[in-house]
Amino acid sequence: MGAVLLIGATLAVGFAVWAYARSASTSAEKSFASEINSNVNCLNINFVIINANFSATNPSLATIWLYDTSTSGVSLSNIVISNSTGGVPYSGPLVGTLKPSVVTSVTVNAGTWKFKAVQMYNFRAEAINSTVQCSVYSPTYSQITPNPV
After folding, report:
1. Residue 9 lies in domain
2. How many CB atoms lie within 10 A of CB 8?
3. Which among 67, 74, 86, 138 is most buried, taking Cβ atoms within 10 Å?
């Protein structure tokens, strides 16, 4: 009689452990699939920063040109500009959509922060589609026009 109870208890504990392990693995699989889908969505957001220009009359302005190579429009969510010392002088939200196969210019106003002559700057544009936000990094651009300030 005791052996039957012990076998029953062992089976009950075994099924409980099996159910927990199955639940945990299902959760891990869903999390992994979500991350993979996020990466695939980032691959579908195809745009590049093709040029940057600094204003000669206003040291707070820079214009960047972006090109969307995807088949649907991409919504810009942010532009981040950093200088060669690693600072992030401007990080501001943008409202705008890049049209497929069209070069789009965006003028960025860094406010009180001034672009300095003969200094290197990096631009990062962030775009978002319906499910994920992705970043595109530009080459380094140099401000070579002397600013009035």
Report:
1. 1-44
2. 10
3. 74
Closest by CA position to 63, among listed 129, 119, 143? 143
- State whether 60 and 132 are in the same domain: yes
Kindly state whether residues 17 and 51 are assigned to the same domain.
no
Task: Write out pLDDT tens, residues 24-63.
Answer: 999 889 888 887 776 776 777 777 788 888 777 887 788 8
Do 29 and 102 lie in a common domain? no
Is 55 contained in some domain?
yes
**pLDDT, tens digit, 9 for 90 and up, residues 82-140:** 776 665 556 666 657 788 888 888 787 776 677 766 667 777 777 766 556 676 666 66
Inter-residue long-range contacts of 97-101, CB under 8 Å, 24+ positions, other chains counted: 97/73, 98/47, 98/66, 98/67, 98/68, 98/73, 98/74, 98/127, 99/68, 99/73, 100/68, 100/69, 100/70, 100/71, 100/72, 100/73, 101/67, 101/68, 101/69
Tokens of 95: 């409202």
Q: Which of 109, 125, 124 is nearest to 55 (CA)?
A: 109
